[in-house]
Design a protein that fits this description.
Elements (H helix, E strand, L loop, with lengths): L3 E4 L16 H10 L5 E2 L5 E2 L3 E6 L5 E6 L13 H14 L12 H5 L12 E4 L2 E5 L7 H4 L31 E3 L11 E6 L9 E6 L5 H7 L4 E3 L7 H10 L25 H17 L12 H4 L22 E4 L7 H13 L3 E4 L2
Parallel strand pairs: 1-10, 1-11, 12-13
Antiparallel strand pairs: 2-3, 4-5, 5-7, 6-7, 8-9, 9-10
Helix pairs in contact: 7-9
Amino acid sequence: MENLFGLTWTKGPNSWDPLDFDLGNNIHFGRMLYSPPFEVTANGDISSYILKSFSMDETGKSLDMLLDTNKKYKDGTSITTMDLIFPILRMALTRPEFPVIEAIDGIDEWRKQQVPLSILPKGITVNGNLVTVRFRSPQPQALFRLSFELFSIVPSKCFDLKTSTLICDHPPESGRYYLEEKISLRSPPTQINFTRASDTEKTPKKITISYIDKNDIDEFLNKHPGSIVHTSDLDHSKIELEILARKHSIFETPKSWFGVFVLSKFSPIFQNQTDRLIFRNKFLKNLFQSEDLSFDVETSIFTEIMPGFLSKSIEEFEQRELSNTHKTLRYFSRGISNENLIRVLEKTCLELKIKRERVQ
């Protein structure tokens, strides 16, 4: 089978609603079938599949989007300016603090209306096929943010204006591909066949995505020569990847992670808040001083506001010792990419005289 892709790190999709397209099992499904206002090309440039033109003014506070009237849904109906605006409004209603969206002029007053989805905020205007969005402050990342699958264009008539819920079983496709066969998402499908919507596109005419188990990669590739499998190194041991590399070509794709290290207050060693602070600060110091990491580390605001932690400086707890040094720290981790972090963890335990036990 040509143009066959296997995915191991997620099950099949379970929603037609673009507000669910940020979930791992829906993101590929949404991207294939529905177009957001903007797209990021392989070269990192911003383009659009459904806009004839677009521009941001020099101040970064006004965005113009001119709808391409030749673009239609798969059922033949026209994409309207309201369809273009509607995903922005739904995000403003359900995720009001989302970057760029929260800066739209008049959005706070709009949200207070009885049925806000039935009207436009002051900062969004329509003139023919031209939609203009004005912001209270410069938004240099506006085009990038509006390329997210969350802003995928679906007919506005497919939503209840009062509740914002999706009322269409299968909204007509606005993207580069469509489904020839009807599928049900009540239980996640194991395979989906996508067909190219336009004959002028220089993309494969058909693409099939199969959702497979991570342990079936070798069998899948042997059964389907020339196919591609997208997996996560977090789900494989070093040995498993080495075995696969002997038989198949492996390429790393660009990636970024955010991590949360949870120090459970239910664990005897971390029942004391001061002990958690001492351990956290020692770990962070070792992390940023480590020369063993193969990636850059950035801090987060959540470092200070995670429940159970106080906003204290590292130096304040530098020389203090844990009160439960006779206890054992049990921990587990997924994937070989975390092995460097494990070494930081083990160094921290050694310095704080903590016994440690790795749980498989």
